[in-house]
């Protein structure tokens, strides 16, 4: 991983980073793989990393990653909005928990 630009935000408690990842003879790295590399490079927890986008040029085996490394978890939760997929997953889990805890009526 090669850091292209790294800017400490003056307004928000985070570092804005653009990096280049080489993955010749392989597929575009997943967000989990990228977070693992980022956390090793910046020596921080994976939960403090928000990947904005992974740009891959067709056939080159090189991806540009735009991401943010936050200073603490509380500030990150205030700033970062959850994706629709995350909200739907949480909503389904809540509904299933309600169904499981609801008393089951027996048919007479």
Overview of this protein structure:
It contains three helices and four strands, in the order E-E-H-E-E-H-H. The mean pLDDT is 87. The chain has a single domain, classed as Alpha-Beta Plaits. It has 108 residues and is an alpha+beta fold. It starts with a strand and ends in a 7-residue tail after the last helix. The longest helix has 18 residues, at 84-101. It has a four-stranded antiparallel beta sheet with strand order 1-2-4-3. It has helices at 31-42, 73-79, 84-101; strands at 2-8, 14-22, 49-56, 62-70.
Give a short summary of the structure.
The chain has helices at 31-42, 73-79, 84-101; strands at residues 2-8, 14-22, 49-56, 62-70.
Topology at a glance:
Layout: E1 2-8, E2 14-22, H1 31-42, E3 49-56, E4 62-70, H2 73-79, H3 84-101
Antiparallel strand pairs: 1-2, 2-4, 3-4
């Amino acid at each position: 991983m090669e850091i292209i630009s790294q800017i400490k935000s003056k307004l928000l408690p985070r570092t804005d980073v653009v990096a280049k990842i080489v993955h010749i003879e392989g597929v575009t790295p997943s967000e989990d793989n990228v977070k693992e590399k980022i956390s090793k490079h910046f020596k921080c927890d994976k939960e403090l990393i928000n990947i904005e986008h992974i740009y891959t040029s067709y056939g080159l085996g090189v991806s540009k990653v735009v991401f943010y490394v936050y200073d603490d978890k509380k500030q990150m939760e205030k700033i970062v909005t959850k994706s629709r997929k995350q909200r739907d997953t949480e909503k389904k889990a809540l509904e299933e928990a309600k169904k499981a805890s609801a008393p089951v009526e027996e048919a007479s």
